[in-house]
Amino acid sequence: MARVRTGVRAMGAVLAVVLGASLTGCSSTGGKRAEERAAAAAEGRAAVNTPRWTFAMVTHSGDGDTFWDIVQKGAEQAALKDNINFLYSHNDEANQQAQLVQTAIDKKVDGLIVSLAKPDAMKAVVAKAVEAGIPVVTVNSGSAESKEFGALTHIGQDESIAGEAVGDELNSRDRKKALCVLHEQGNVGHEQRCAGAKKTFGGTMQNLYVDGTNMPDVTASIEAKLQSDKSIDAVVTLGAPFADAAVQAKQTAGSKAEIDTFDLNAKVVTGLQSDKLGFAVDQQPYLQGYEAVDLLWLYRYNRNVLGGGLPVLTGPQIITKDDADALADYTKRGTR
Fold first, then answer.
1. What digits encode the pLDDT tens for the residues 88-136?
2. 226: closest CA among 205, 204, 251?
3. Which pLDDT score, from 0 to 100, does residue 260 have?
4. What is the bridge-based pairing of β-strands 204-209 and 258-262?
5. What is the Cα–Cα distance from 167 to 163, expressed in whole angstroms?
6. What is the 3-class SS of the chain, one letter each residue?
7. C or N terminus of the chain, fewer CB within 10 Å?
8. Is the pLDDT of residue 300 over 70?
9. Beta carbons within 8 Å of 315's beta carbon, 6+ residues apart
């Protein structure tokens, strides 16, 4: 079974209860109503008769990022169930992301979901949304800034805690020298991951900055580092697409370093099963999208707010080869 930190396990139990409650929609009719709503969703129909509100999600995703595809899929499934008109847009340039948020404000959406990878660039426009009376939920990145910016809650993993879990896992594998590969300049969550790993790791950890928009450059940069320093025995990438680049770099460099990664997808599961990867850190992106929409719906319908002023944690969970078979089907359908 997967190993999780004690606090995360407890939060996961709470979240499971909340998710179950949200699926039954604050109903006192119990299992029968839940079955009716599940059947409606399966048939492509809304499971509620609340107004058809419009929610917009604006993220810092680049094109072709499988992680955000999973977030979007979760949000779309919740939107279908909750009778929501769902609008999704993204841009990995902070100023362009802010402009997309402004566009959502101009459309007078009924709820806004936004990621805060580069919070300084997003602060003013999120404040505009709040001032316009649009309820805001932040997702994935920006947990430290979410409450300050006026969001109802933040859904995601604590990146520092996730990094610390990585450091602990590297220690358990008796690693001595690790490389933490950062693929997006200025992303505060990425810096927190590497800093957290360095905090708990008993060995030496170096940061390697690469251009995540240029995968051949990513591969070449990791390869050059592994060739120049044969003592590196672990490489940690911060996103599933970059794990494959690290595997290729390892092979070309003739390195024996273990490749580990944040995030999960079908290719990562295959890598775990074949021992090309040591472990992955799952933050359950499907749940981030699903719960963000669901919580906005609960707020519009019943003024519910989850978290009590603290982030709602969806991770981290350390996934190893032992867990891969059980998750393979879910990753193939794009929900894990």
1. 999 999 999 999 999 999 999 999 999 999 999 999 999 999 999 999 9
2. 251
3. 98
4. unpaired
5. 6
6. CCECCHHHHHHHHHHHHHHHHHHHCCCCCCHHHHHHHHHHHHCCCCCCCCCCCEEEEEECCCCCCHHHHHHHHHHHHHHHHCCCEEEEEECCCHHHHHHHHHHHHHCCCCEEEECCCCHHHHHHHHHHHHHCCCCEEEECCCHHHHCCCCCCEEEECCHHHHHHHHHHHHHHCCCCEEEEEECCCCCHHHHHHHHHHHHHCCCEEEEEECCCCCHHHHHHHHHHHHHHCCCCCEEEECCHHHHHHHHHHHHHHCCCCEEEEECCCHHHHHHHHCCCCCCEEECCHHHHHHHHHHHHHHHHHHCCCCCCCCCEECCCEEECHHHHHHHHHHHHCCCC
7. N
8. yes
9. 8, 156, 157, 162, 281, 282, 283, 284
What pTM, to 2 d.p., does this model score?
0.82
Q: Across residues 273-291, what is the average pLDDT?
A: 97
What tens digit of pLDDT does each residue of 147-179 get? 999 999 999 999 999 999 999 999 999 999 999
